Amino acid sequence: MIVGTSSKVSEESKIGADNDNRVSNDGQLIDEARSDPEAFARLYRRHYDAVFRYCVHRLFERQTAEDVTSAVFLKVVENLHGFKGTERQFRNWLYKIATNTVNDHLRKNARRAGLLKVAGEHADNQVADCESAAEKADEQMTILRKAMLDLRPRYQTIITMRFFENLKLAEIAEVLGSSDGTVRSQLARALAKLRKKLGTFQREVLEND
Amino acid sequence: MTDNERQFEDFIRDIKFDDTPDPTHRGTLEQDLLTILSKQSPRQIEFWRTIMKAKITKLAAAAVIIVAVALSVSVLTNLTSPAWAIEDTAEALDEFSGIYISGTIAKGDLGEGSDTVLIGKERVPCELWAQANQERTGSGNIRLDAGSKIMVVYKMTTYTYDADSNRVDIKPGQGFTIDPWPTGEFVLQIQEMVKDWEVLYGKDPASGRDRVFITCCYPRLLKSYWFEIDVETGLPVRLKQWHNTRRQGAPAYDFQRLIFFEELPDELFEFDIPEGTTIIEK
Q1: What is B3-267+277-281's CATH number, 2.50.20.10, 3.40.50.12500, 3.30.1450.10, 1.25.10.10?
Q2: ipTM exceeding 0.85?
Q3: Global confidence as pTM
Q4: Chain B residue with minimal CA distance to A141?
């Protein structure tokens, strides 16, 4: 479940690298992790990368993503004893916790407007100096961030899971507790809205040039 | 899928994030979590397993589950409840300019503006259709059927019909409105102003759809509210309002159906004056 591929072929970067592997091996480890700290540490290492990446893909910011990742795993520690389910359900459980924690962060800090404003100013500032290919990529990311954070949280979640987490529609439906058809139609609407917002923000940037 | 749509999806998919995990943070967090785990009594973790093994406890637990299902509302922690945020509702509301509401209203003096507990009041079935005005600041055309009375505002003329007296009063202007219109912005502002905001998660027993149940009160207006919101659409589906701050007694308004429309046609609000009615034009 990696967006893109990592060039680091180290033992640590293999952890969490293969989504199917995570799912098929978690069952026994989950049981052990409830009472064995070493087992919990193994479970944590298996899932940390995926949770962190999901938070980055939702929040577009590493520092905040690290903070939210910490909050997610704290909730896992506090509630693992109450989790009962299969390996696949554990992964879905983690996604739900991460989704709710990200949404809580966005809501409680009441910073959606602030983030958009900052992102907009950041975009304006960046665009003003944008010349190289790398800077152009930065500009695109900033505009995408602004557009994504302007969507309703559910749409953000579905687009992130589909395009940045590479989950299938059926898997997204499982995580969100919806039907495949509902996710499909919401994804279509989300993309249409995102496309419209990107167009709007892109035009604003060009007008400010 | 059109070529444009495919290209757009490819564009999104190709976006690269700086998402390589930092080993320092991973390691530090692991240590913090293990510290927390070590402070938790191992007996605490075992405790729940032990009590669940006892046969009688399992039966009691099963009974709790059955009762929860029968009540059709299971109180889940918001840890794994379906993701919903007030912003979902705010954004959903901005997509619609028409609304249909049906339910009941308590008859007689509803105690608007005073701390009133309604008990034993006769209830009147009601239906309301409303279309937002162009600016979405309030309603434009609106129609309310409540018991023997019909009130319609159509193209800035108000018709008030009373079947009991077989009379219709016609006046220029908007005799009644929904003001302000429930926009997303309004909902977000309201959430900031109300008190005792509580959220429960559950399911609609008929459809199995995920629902959010919200209660709150507005002390300044001496009102309290109960909302049911459909998680998937983000839209409210049921609503109750009390004219006291404690949701005490019968609600003044009990709306069991809320349906939203992108737009309602003008023709829906044309009022055909019944034959033989006394018409009073003011």
Answers
A1: 2.50.20.10
A2: no
A3: 0.55
A4: B15
